[in-house]
Design a protein that fits this description.
single chain
């Protein structure tokens, strides 16, 4: 199994003004992302507001992405539940839609221990027809997949890697130091990409690439190629936009930016709401700065 590398976009889910899933806008985003050089696409994650979509909507979103992608780049579909049986069922549904990978997050709210996490992910990986990428995001789930458990799961033949969003670089480096050669380690935090890749990581599942897929992909490729100086320049060019995209809860700022660009409507599903005017202005300014190519010297 080839190790997954590069920059993937954690796709937003566009909605109409009435709040329905806008599949036409979604497929237009997919075509644009691929034209801009993105390496893979990730529908139905947290950025895609997956927890506000019903089963049928999630299936339609993923099927639309698979159709629009047409095999040009891999598709990694989110399939997460805090009920293992439901996570298994969701994984099987996503596999039937023709995806290439499954992204499975740690169970939220019920706070399982490490043995429970291990058994949960083994059940998902055993049931999946496609390789499974673990997703550690303790800020959203209130549980941390520790390095020892991640490495234990890395021995499962159908676990292909991890999207690491703990924000703890030391923890990620423990995984990088001991991982099997086939096990991908991807950053789940835009701003940690450069140090993670420099430490041996394989790339990024990005929020910011929703808005600027070309620059984000170029940045990740430079880092992976070992051109740290050029990657650092891109890092500081993109950092204000990365920061602006998290001034309020993701994906509200990134959707505001895409709406400013005319690519989607600025519509979210409750309990999320559109960003304030102040945040919208910050996102707009950061997008303009990326387009203008303003880069400061950082030694």
């Amino acid at each position: 199994m080839t190790r997954l590398q590069g920059c993937g976009t954690a796709l937003v889910t566009p909605f109409t003004d009435a709040g329905a899933v806008d599949l036409a806008a979604l497929q237009a985003l997919v075509h644009w992302q691929i034209a801009e050089g993105i390496d893979f696409l990730v529908p139905c994650g947290s950025t895609g507001e997956a927890q506000t979509l019903d089963d049928g909507e999630r299936e339609r979103v993923v099927a639309s992405v698979v159709e629009a992608t047409a095999g040009r780049v891999p598709v990694m579909a989110g399939a997460t539940s805090n009920d293992t049986a439901r996570a298994v069922a969701e994984t099987r549904r996503m596999c039937r839609l023709g995806v290439d990978y499954i992204l499975s997050a740690t169970p939220y709210y019920n706070k399982p221990g490490q043995e429970g996490l291990y058994r949960h992910f083994c059940a998902v990986a055993d049931a999946s027809e496609k390789p499974v990428c673990l997703y550690n995001v303790p800020g959203r789930t209130a549980v941390n997949l520790k390095p020892a458990t991640a490495l234990r799961l890395a021995e499962h033949p159908n676990v292909t890697g991890i999207k690491e969003s703990s924000g703890d670089l030391k923890q990620v480096m423990e995984i990088l130091r001991e991982r099997p050669a086939r096990f991908a380690v991807l950053s789940g935090d835009d701003w940690l990409t450069l140090p993670l890749v420099t430490a041996g990581g394989d790339g990024l599942v990005s929020v910011t690439s929703n808005q600027v897929p070309g620059p984000m992909t170029a940045y990740v490729h430079l880092a992976l190629s070992g051109d740290v100086g050029s990657a650092r320049e891109w890092h500081y060019r993109l950092l204000p936009l990365m920061d602006a995209n998290f001034l309020e809860t993701n994906p509200a700022p990134v959707k505001a930016g895409l709406a400013l660009m005319g690519r989607i409507r600025n519509v979210l599903r409750l309990p999320l709401v559109p960003v304030t005017e102040t945040t919208c202005a910050a996102v707009h300014a950061a997008l303009r700065a990326v387009s203008a190519g303003r880069v400061r010297s950082h030694g």
